[in-house]
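Hi there, hope your week has been kind to you so far. Thanks so much in advance, here it is:
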Amino acid sequence: MFQKSFWAALESVWMTPRRTLLSGLGMAVGVAAIVTLVSLGKGVQRDVVAQVESLGVNLVIVLPGRLSPENPFNPMSFIGLSTLREGDIEAVAQVAGVRRVAPIMFVAGGAQRGDRWADAALILGTTPEWFEMRPHTLKYGRFFTHSEAEQFVCILGPKPAEQLFGASNPVGKQVLLNGKPFTVIGVTAEDTSRSLLGSGGFEFAIYAPIRALQRAMGSQQIHRVIAQTAPDVEPARLQEQIRAAVLRSHGSSEDFSVLTQEELLNRLFILLQIVSVALTGITSIALVVGGIGVMNVMLMSVTERVREIGVRKTVGAQQRDIFWQFLIEALLIALAGGLLGALIGWGVCALVDRFTVLTPVVTVDTVLLALGVCGLVGLVFGVAPAYRAARKDPVEALRHE
């Protein structure tokens, strides 16, 4: 009998395509929004993983500020304040199993040459070990050495080089980093393939010896200490030893954190998940509105089809048969809107992928999740119309004009 109710519901939906389409539009909007947002979130997550892994898998990162499960995002890590110092670099380097150590200093501002600006440049102070930890390909020139630790020299990423010098070779020429003159000795050839983070932002980087940059900027800040472990040593095994070494350097003040790349990714993913859940929750309101639209249309349909209900009951249909017919109709309308929304969401993701640096990842499980929620909403909001139809008195229904 359930099968007959299904075919009756399908026939009703098929014979009223305009009503089905209009009543399912709310569901389509909700599903399209969910598919788009979840796909964007997965794309961002994939980009983040790829860029962090491009640094290598055997890194341990020391950063300022105390991070904990209760406080996973310490403001000190983001606003430029740092308690790390020179002694911490030496302490980490002395830990057995640490192969290389490179400090990182971030400098806000831009690079200038005449009236040309590279305002999106990321100015980094570091040591030659950085170029060994993360191998770079050079387009022009060379890397700086330890003997140039105090010299005002720099290496440009491909984007600043293009913005400041066009297609010409800038080696030997000067640029101003926050008003201080630095001589260009090299240009990297980073991968500039389209993605949210480009080549991890390194195509915008300008590298300078950290001591020279500290002297030029009048600041002794060290924002990160990155340790590369030996190939046969698991980074997590050295994490506690590195923490203890830095703690000895700091005395009794543990105003820093030591993270492996896996932990760093987990913290980033927590933030991404919070944003994704919040946005998905907001867009789910459209599904509720769509469900209310389906319920209203089905209630009107019950009123319009009172005589049909009476005829079906007269020829032997039970209350449960009428109930299932109208409930299945509501479900089919919701799923039809959901399928339309999935197609719209896929189209939006294709346009975003085509015209922006974002790369949404549309997966089958995302579409199935959206359709599943859509179907559940259709069932919930279809109960009232189905119950109302099932309770119709057949004699009164047949008398209805």
